[in-house]
Design a protein that fits this description.
Shape: elongated
Low-confidence stretches: none
Number of strands: 20
Largest sheet: 8 strands, mixed
Radius of gyration: 24 Å
C-alpha cells in the first residue's frame, strides 16, 4: 500500500521524484490551479503557455510530464488536468480533485516519492486528494512477475511496475488535528477499498467461500471485529436453503460469515449484507460463451461489505456495524440445483428456481432474513445482481432501491457526497405478480422487462417488518473492463465501500434520524 505523509516542505523545496500540480480548462486555454504557484514561478510565469504549446488543455485526467526547471528540487513536474475552471469564488469539487490525483498517481507507477500540490483549500479538499492518490496508485500484481525468476543471467528482469511508494501531500497543515484526522481517514478507507479490489481480482481457484471466510476471520482478528463463520453443517442445521441450494453444485461449499463491529457508546446498529458468489457459471442455466471470464467479480458486494465493516472499526465509529457475507460458488454438476427445483429458504418461504443464474437473490434472501432477526435500525444489501441494471444505468452508476423513500434518498445523496455515481430506482408493486408460482410461495424470476426492479422486489420479501432497507445493485461499476481512468483501475473497483462508510458515519452522528 502506498504511504501517505503530510509534508511541511514547500513545492520549491520538496525533494522527491516528482511534483504534481494541477491546471484547469479555461475558455482561452489552460489555467494554472492553486498550489502550482511555485512551479509557475520557476517557469517565469509561463507554465500555462508552455503547456498549451505542448497541446495540454487542462481537460480532466490529462497528464503532462515536464523536466523541472532550476528553482525546484524535483527532476520532474507532473501536470494533471482538473477539468473546467470553476466559477469565480468556487473551488474544484472533491471528485475533480480525487480523479486528478488518481490520474497522476497512476502515471507515477515505479516512482518512490511524489509531492502532490493540488488545490487543498480545505480539509475536505486535502482528503479528496489523498484518497484519489492512494486509490489511483493501486495495482494488482500478485500473479505477475514470475518470469523474473527465470530471466537469463545478465539480462534485465521485466515485470509490472510497482505502485508509487509514497504520496507527500503539500499544503495540508500537518500539525492541524483536522488535517491529521482527514489523512488517517483517507488511509483507512483507501486501504480497505484496495483490500476489496484485491479480493475481487483474485482468481476463483484461489478465492472461494472457505478461503474468503478465512481472509475475513484474519482481518477481524487484526482489527477487533468479531467474526463467526457458518459452514455447510451449520447451514444445514439452520435451514439456510438459499445458500445451500446455490452452493450444492460446487466442490467448494457455501459459507455465511458474520462480522460484528461494536462501539460501547453506540446508539444505532447498521446491518450490511453482501452477495458473495465467488464464481458464477450460471449453474445449470449456464452462461453463454463470452460471459464467464469476469465472473470472479460476482462477490464484489461481499467484498464491499467486508471492507466497510473493517473501515468502520479502524475509524472507531460510534455505531454498531454488522456485516453478513453470503458466500457460495455457483457451478453446474450432478449435484447442482435444477431449474424447477423448490428451495426452502431460511425464512421458511419456498422459492421455485426457474433460472439457476438468478442465484444472487437466493443467497441474499437467507442473509437478509438472518440479519433482520437482530433487529438493526437499517439494512443495506450490496450486490452485482442484474445485467438489467447495467442496461438501465450503464457501467459507472449503481441503482438504489428501498422500502423507504427517505432512506433511498439519503443513500443517493451520500453516494454523491463521496463521489460514487448512483441513481434512485422504484419498486413497482405490479411487477411482483410476475414472480407468482403455482408450486412455491414465490419464483426467483419474474418479468424480463424491469429485471433489476424485479430482483429488488424479490429481496424485499426477506426483510424483517419495520426495518428500513435499501438495495444497491452495483453490477455496472463493480468491475471495470476498460482502460483505467482517474482513480479507477482496470478490474475490481471497490464500488460502494465509500458510500457504506459514509452511511455508517452519518448513522453514528445521528444525521439519519
Amino acid at each position: 500500500m502506498t504511504a501517505l505523509t503530510l509534508s511541511t516542505a514547500g513545492a520549491a523545496t520538496l525533494r522527491a521524484d516528482a511534483l504534481v500540480v494541477g491546471i484547469g480548462k479555461g475558455a482561452k486555454g489552460p489555467v494554472v490551479a492553486p498550489g502550482a504557484g511555485a512551479v509557475d514561478k520557476a517557469f517565469d510565469g509561463k507554465l500555462a503557455t508552455v503547456l498549451e504549446a505542448l497541446g495540454a488543455s487542462g481537460a480532466e485526467g490529462e497528464v503532462t510530464k515536464l523536466p523541472a526547471p532550476s528553482g525546484l528540487k524535483v527532476p520532474v513536474v507532473v501536470v494533471v488536468g482538473l477539468g473546467p475552471v470553476p466559477a469565480k469564488g468556487d473551488g474544484y469539487d472533491g471528485e475533480a480533485l480525487r480523479r486528478a490525483a488518481g490520474s497522476a498517481a497512476r502515471a507515477l507507477a515505479g516512482a518512490k516519492k511524489a509531492g502532490f500540490a493540488l488545490p487543498t483549500g480545505s480539509v475536505e479538499d486535502a482528503e479528496a486528494v489523498a484518497e484519489g492518490a492512494l486509490l489511483g496508485a493501486y495495482a494488482f500484481t500478485a500473479y505477475q512477475g514470475g518470469e523474473n525468476k527465470v530471466a537469463p543471467k545478465g539480462k534485465p528482469r521485466s515485470g509490472p511496475k510497482l505502485p508509487l511508494e509514497e504520496v507527500a501531500l503539500l499544503g495540508a497543515k500537518p500539525r492541524d488535528k483536522a488535517y491529521k484526522a482527514a489523512a488517517e481517514r483517507a488511509v483507512a478507507v483507501s486501504e480497505e477499498i484496495n483490500r476489496a479490489r484485491d479480493l475481487i481480482n483474485t482468481p476463483p481457484n484461489d478465492l472461494y467461500p472457505e478461503s474468503f471466510a478465512a481472509v475475513a476471520a484474519a482481518a477481524g482478528k487484526e482489527h477487533g471485529v468479531k467474526v463467526q463463520v457458518l459452514d455447510e453443517k451449520a447451514l444445514v442445521k439452520g435451514g439456510f436453503g438459499g445458500l445451500l441450494g446455490v452452493g450444492q453444485g460446487s466442490t467448494h461449499g457455501p459459507r455465511l460469515v458474520k462480522l460484528a463491529y461494536t462501539h460501547p457508546k453506540a446508539e444505532k446498529t447498521l446491518a450490511l449484507v453482501g452477495k458473495g458468489i465467488t464464481y458464477d457459471s450460471g449453474g445449470i442455466s449456464l452462461k453463454p460463451a463470452g460471459h464467464n471470464e469476469t465472473m470472479k467479480c460476482d462477490m464484489s458486494g461481499a467484498a464491499a461489505v467486508f471492507a466497510a465493516v473493517i473501515a468502520a472499526s479502524r475509524l472507531g465509529l460510534r455505531v454498531n456495524v454488522t456485516g453478513w457475507l453470503a458466500l457460495a460458488e455457483n457451478m453446474p454438476s450432478g449435484n447442482a440445483t435444477r431449474p424447477g427445483d423448490v428451495l426452502r429458504m431460511y425464512s421458511g418461504k419456498t422459492v421455485e428456481v426457474l433460472n439457476t443464474d438468478a442465484e444472487g437473490r437466493l443467497v441474499l434472501g437467507d442473509a437478509l432474513t438472518r440479519a433482520s432477526e437482530e433487529k438493526p435500525d437499517a439494512i443495506v444489501d450490496v450486490a452485482t445482481l442484474t445485467g438489467a441494471m447495467v442496461l438501465a444505468l450503464g457501467n459507472r452508476t449503481f441503482g438504489v432501491m428501498a422500502n423507504d423513500d427517505a432512506f433511498r434518498t439519503a443513500i443517493h445523496e451520500i453516494a454523491g457526497e463521496v463521489g460514487e455515481a448512483s441513481w434512485p430506482m422504484p419498486l413497482p408493486a405490479d411487477l411482483r405478480k410476475g414472480m407468482e408460482s403455482p408450486t412455491a410461495d414465490i419464483a426467483n424470476m419474474g418479468e424480463r422487462m424491469g429485471g433489476g426492479l424485479v430482483a429488488g422486489l424479490f429481496l424485499q420479501e426477506f426483510v424483517g417488518e419495520g426495518i428500513a432497507w435499501a438495495h444497491l445493485d452495483i453490477a455496472g461499476p463493480a468491475f471495470h473492463e476498460g482502460a483505467p481512468y482517474g482513480y479507477t483501475p482496470k478490474g475490481g473497483t471497490g464500488s460502494a465501500v465509500r458510500t457504506l462508510v459514509r452511511l455508517a458515519e452519518r448513522t453514528a452522528s445521528g444525521d439519519l434520524g
